[in-house]
Design a protein that fits this description.
Layout: H1 3-25, H2 33-57, H3 69-90, H4 95-115
Helix pairs in contact: 1-2, 1-3, 2-3, 3-4
The chain binds protoporphyrin IX containing FE.
Protoporphyrin IX containing FE (HEM) is lined by residues 7, 10-11, 14, 48, 51-52, 54-55, 58-59, 71, 74-75, 77-78, 81, 105-106, 109-110, 113.
Length: 121
């Protein structure tokens, strides 16, 4: 598969995962919990597969040991984004905090994707 397909998978996975996460912030019921968290897990995995595919096919870096720091920062943002929906279901009272954290992870990942700062590595 060539890199544009990985880019579509990557960005679609991130967009839909963000949508599922904001559904929880919007008060998705406990009855929907299993469905939303399952969908979130699948979308998170698709975003990761797309990211690995982009690294291998577009950047020529199939081995994560060769990845620049900006890409590792993106991996940390992905871990955070992937975990938030489950935490937000358990701790609804802090929803504003989870919204701020999700926004932070998304913005940092986008800055890394488009500006690729050297970050010393
Ligand atoms: C919250 C997490 C993330 C967000 C919001 C995000 C978003 C994006 C966006 C919008 C692009 C631009 C698509 C393009 O130009 O083709 C991109 C590119 C990319 N992403 Fe992610 N991403 C995230 C996590 C990851 C992860 C976990 C990986 C690796 C496993 C990854 C690897 C890449 C690579 C290699 C590119 C191509 C960069 C380039 O075109 O030079 N991303 N990402």
């Amino acid at each position: 598969m060539s890199w544009p397909y990985y880019a579509i998978l990557h960005v679609a996975g991130i967009l839909l995962l963000t949508g599922a996460t904001f559904a929880v912030f919007g008060g998705a019921s406990e009855a929907r919990r299993k469905l939303i968290l399952m969908a979130g897990g699948i979308l998170s995995l698709l975003a990761l597969v797309g990211g690995f595919g982009l690294a291998a096919k577009k950047l020529g870096m199939p081995n994560p040991m060769d990845w620049p720091a900006w890409l590792w920062v993106k991996v940390l943002c992905w871990v955070g984004l992937s975990a938030i929906a489950g935490i937000a279901y358990r701790r609804r009272a802090q929803t504003p905090r989870w919204i701020a954290l999700t926004t932070f992870f998304l913005l940092v990942a986008l800055v890394m994707a488009f500006l690729k700062p050297a970050l010393g590595r």
